[in-house]
Amino acid sequence: METSVLTAAFERHFGAAPALLLRAPGRINLIGEHTDYNDGLVLPAAIDKEIRFAMRLNGTDRIRLAALDLDDTYEVAVADIAPIPGGHWANYQLGVVAGLLRHGAEVPGFDCAFGGNVPNGAGLSSSAAVECGVAWGLSELLKLNLDRMTLAHIAQKAEHEYAKVMCGLMDQFASLFGRGGHVVELDCRSLEYGYFPFNTDDCRVVLCNSGVKHALGDSEYNTRREECAKGVAILQKANPAITSLRDATLPEIEAAAAEMGEVVARRCRYVVEENQRVRDFTAALGAGRSLAEVGELLYASHAGLRDDYEVSCKELDVLVELSRQAPGCYGARMMGGGFGGCTLNLVATNDVKAFLTHMKEGYQRELGLKLDTYVTTLADGVGELLNED
Question: I want to staple 328 with a disulfide (CB 3.0 to 4.6 A). Which of 10, 185, 230, 348 is the partner?
Answer without folding.
Answer: 348
